[in-house]
Amino acid sequence: MKRIAILGSTGSIGENTLQVAARFPGEFQVVGLSANSRTEVLYRQIKRFSPRLVAVSDTIKAGELAGKLDKKIKLLAGEDAAAAIAGDKAIDLVVLAISGSAALRPLLKAIETGKDVALANKEALVMAGDIIMRKAREGNAKIFPIDSEQSAIWQCVEGKEKKTLKKVYLTASGGPLKDFSRRALQKVSLDRVLRHPRWKMGRKVTVDSATLMNKGLELIEAMHLFGLGVKDIEIIIHPEAIIHSMVEFIDGSILAQLSVTDMRVPIQYALTYPRRFPGSLNGIDFFKLGKLTFYKPSMARFPCFRLAWGAAVRGGSAPCVLNAANEVAVDAFLNKQIGFLGIPKIIEKVLARHKVVSRPGLDEILRIDAWAKQQAQDLVGGLGGKG
């Protein structure tokens, strides 16, 4: 039986992971769960899965939860609580579904203690991919991607020699605003941005999908996961979201991974790898589908994608700054402090102020992350709802 901890269990990835684990009770034991502040959802999960370890980042919410829990359950509180669970000896696999840069410390802790990680977070690799992948190699820890696109690449390249790879095609649905004009984007509402046509995701990642920043972050993530350069990856808009990514080989063959648009498919593969278990979803009906379409993304219409591509080319600390500024700008948009087009304005200004460090260490990454967030926050105040 594989003993798992799900960090970020109250979000959509965490909830889907628990659904998958529940289908195979003889295969998985849920040992640890963590949440930021959604303790009502967390408490329901605890009642069903009886984990031994629970972490809550919000100390006030943790205090409220404490009185409800059985004494056999160890409750950890504070910003380092999830990392403590990630390093616990009783866990075989850490499912990392925490969003944003907060996932970096738990990810490093899991890797440093030799655990395999099923990774649904892309921001940590964007911030510190070189450091993470080096530590994973040193600790013999494996990273199994959960993002549907990265999982697709993984499934296509598994067992293949890297020298036989020619190009990776990373697909994108195009998000909820793919057909909007530049003028329409200036006035788009938060409610419209959050209506994704294909995926049910958290608010932050849905905004990233709308700006195409999500695809830029995935570009950088794929570079680290698979040891690729920027020129080895091409982004393709594929509105049907049936092909999750493709890999071209030097002999001209292209392998593609196709499945219905449901995160339980890549989650289950990451949990059960190297085996495949029966799925619970209906397969693709190609006769109803009818066609698959593809076209190039517009960097002019979606400047966040252009900025992410540029940060990938520059490398070093540039992706860390990109990610930090984006987190602050997206949060400001979600709180209606800035308009939709204010997001790329803030990111571009913060990137322009930064002098790239070519090979930053972890302490420097954390310092740069904090600096970039403060710069972005200052710019949010300056925009004051404009842009």
Layout of secondary structure:
Layout: E1 2-7, H1 12-23, E2 28-35, H2 39-49, E3 53-56, H3 59-66, E4 74-77, H4 81-86, E5 93-96, H5 104-112, E6 116-119, H6 123-139, E7 143-145, H7 148-157, E8 165-172, H8 182-187, H9 190-193, H10 203-211, H11 213-226, E9 233-237, E10 243-249, E11 254-258, H12 264-272, H13 286-289, H14 303-314, H15 318-334, H16 342-353, H17 362-383
Parallel strand pairs: 1-2, 1-5, 2-3, 3-4, 5-6, 6-7, 8-9
Antiparallel strand pairs: 8-10, 10-11
Describe the structure.
The structure is a single chain. With 387 residues, the protein is an alpha/beta fold. The protein has a domain at 2-145: NAD(P)-binding Rossmann-like Domain (Rossmann fold, 3-Layer(aba) Sandwich), CATH 3.40.50. The protein contains 17 helices and eleven strands. A seven-stranded parallel β-sheet has the order 4-3-2-1-5-6-7, sandwiched between helices. Helix 6 (123-139) crosses helix 15 (318-334) and helix 16 (342-353) packs across helix 17. The protein is globular. The N and C termini lie far apart (52 Å). The model has no long low-confidence stretch (mean pLDDT 95).
What keywords describe this structure?
387 residues, alpha/beta, four-stranded mixed β-sheet, 15% strand, globular
Would you state the CATH class of one domain? Answer: Alpha Beta
What are the secondary-structure elements, in order, as H or E? EHEHEHEHEHEHEHEHHHHEEEHHHHHH
The CATH topology of one domain is given as Rossmann fold
SS content category = alpha/beta
Major sheet attributes: 7 strands, parallel
Alpha-carbon distance between the two ends: 52 Å
Mean pLDDT: 95
Percentage of residues in DSSP E strands: 5-15%
Compute the CA-based radius of gyration. 20 Å
Number of strands: 11
Portion of residues in helices?
40-55%
CATH level-two architecture of one domain: 3-Layer(aba) Sandwich
Helix segment tally: 17
CATH evolutionary superfamily of one domain: NAD(P)-binding Rossmann-like Domain
How would you sum up the global shape? Answer: globular
**Stretches where pLDDT falls below 50 for ≥5 residues?**
none
For the largest sheet, list the strands in their spatial order: 4-3-2-1-5-6-7
